[in-house]
Amino acid sequence: MNLNLEGVRVLITGGSRGIGFATASAFAQAGAHVSICARDPDQIEVARKALAKHGGKVHAACCDMADADAIRAYVHDAAAALGGIDVLVNNAGGKASGNTDDDWIRSIDIDLMATVRTIAAARPYLAKSDRARIINISSRTAFRPSPDTQPYGALKAALHQLTQSQAAELAADGINVNCIAPGSTDFPGSWWDQCRTDNPELYKKTMESFPFGRIGREDDITGPILFLSSSLAGWITGQTILVDGGQTLNG
Hints:
By secondary structure, this protein is an alpha/beta fold. It has a single domain (about 10-185, about 215-245), classed as Rossmann fold (3-Layer(aba) Sandwich). Helix content is about 45%, strand content about 15%. The chain contains eight helices and seven strands, in the order E-H-E-H-E-H-E-H-E-H-E-H-H-H-E. It has helices spanning about 20-30, 40-50, 70-80, 100-125, 150-170, 190-200, 200-210, 220-230; strands at about 10-15, 35-40, 60, 85-90, 135, 175-180, 240-245. Helix 5 links the parallel strand 5 (about 135) and strand 6 (about 175-180). Helix 1 (about 20-30) runs parallel beside helix 2 (about 40-50), helix 4 (about 100-125) packs parallel to helix 5 (about 150-170) and helix 6 (about 190-200) packs across helix 7 (about 200-210). It is globular and about 50 Å long. The chain starts with 8 loop residues before the first strand and ends in an 8-residue tail after the last strand. The model has no long low-confidence stretch (mean pLDDT about 95).
């Protein structure tokens, strides 16, 4: 089965590391043209060079996803560099660990409003595509109590409702909108990567919470994202897909 992603123009926020970069790499390897943004200029440049090795067009820029003007400028520049936008992956996230007003405001800006603003900026470009897709990245945290990261969990849950509402609205423009909610995922430099060394007991306990006996990997998440972006998923919209290897089945 061919995902048919050759030449597809993809914009990925929070794309310099982790799931975002893995997604950008997977698209680039499939022959797509990609644009990524993040806050750290050094990480962005490293990611850009790595993506450029796959041969397609690559655009990379620094962008503060809490800044509405910066988002609009980034989306415009990305569309110009790629010649349009076919797929938007909203991956930027904040994961505030406190419960203060500032934590909530920051999480609202990054975990919810960044997606709202990026979709609004990209909509005119997506509407011109004959295969437009939006994929929002949520979290397993949205499905369960999250006392240690309350803003993050609440705003990721809001993203599920936003996905449904945007899917209903944007269908008129021929745009499919879906959401992926990853479970615990380990990758180089991640919190779980650090936890493996700093708190091996917690890492082992979490690993054992998966029916398959391991924590998720980046490619466990990128596969469903590419599928939802492909021609095979043209009749799927408004859905949030929990991609957690059954972790939630065990509480």
